[in-house]
UniProtKB/TrEMBL annotation:
Signal peptide: 1-20
Stated name of the protein: DUF5777 domain-containing protein
Record keywords, A-Z: Signal
One protein family per Pfam: DUF5777
Chain ranges of the DUF5777 domain: 30-289
Native source organism of the sequence: Geothrix rubra
Amino acid sequence: MSKKTAPLLACALLAGGALRAESSDFPLAINLPTAGRMQYWDIGLAFTHRFVTPVKDHGKDVYGLDGYTYPGLGFAFGIKPIKGLNILIYRTADNKTFTFGFQQQILDRDLVRMAFRAERFDEVVPQTTTPFGRVGLTGGTFQLPTEFFLGDSVVLSLVPTYITRTTTTDTILPVPPGATPNTTPNKSGVFNVGVGLRGEITEKFSVVAEYYPRPSKFKNAAPGGLTDGTTYQNGFAAGVSYRTFKHKFTLMGTNTTGTTGNQVLSGDYGGGPRPTSQWSIGFNVIRVF
């Protein structure tokens, strides 16, 4: 290698590393937001798909793949003049929910990064009361996705979340049979903290898991219409991601069919997450332009 070639090659490698460091990262794991960001004027597209029919005992239905599904389509837009700011738009079929908001990255360090996310959600179906609560709601979701980098390949994520309105807001929560009846309406919104874990297996493959705790107010409450002693459940999602050039594919199993912040972290959406054994299949496809 000549003396002139070596400096040029070094500069090219450094430039390539800088470009990778500044590459866009769609701020989504499975259902929880990450603290990543779309750079410059880049656009991110996310297609989500959740099968409703549980895998258990349904081999004749191809383990749920023959059943109903909830697809969703969303975009994240980078805003070049304001570093770390993304505009978010998403629409999913369950209750025809439309969300619009923004996410601003407020911390980006070697071991931790953090963002603030605010969204308005509108359920476009006609407002009515079902056995599990009210649908056709409008509300807001405020989140603080925070990621801790544990070494080179493991990321722990905490997502404190406040949801202003849920399906059981302004209603009296039912209780399991034999329990003391509840006479106080559930007036307030819900605070919850989602937990995520991502671990790289190779440069392209990684495992990802999320946990959606049951809010404390639902600990002794029963989803409407259920009289078998069932109470609201904790939610989870876990799967495998494959990343290739500007694409990320994630296949998971989950006991919640929701995808938005108010759906997976409210604890009571559609009667809440199903029992752990009743998990179903879902997938995400993300493309960065």
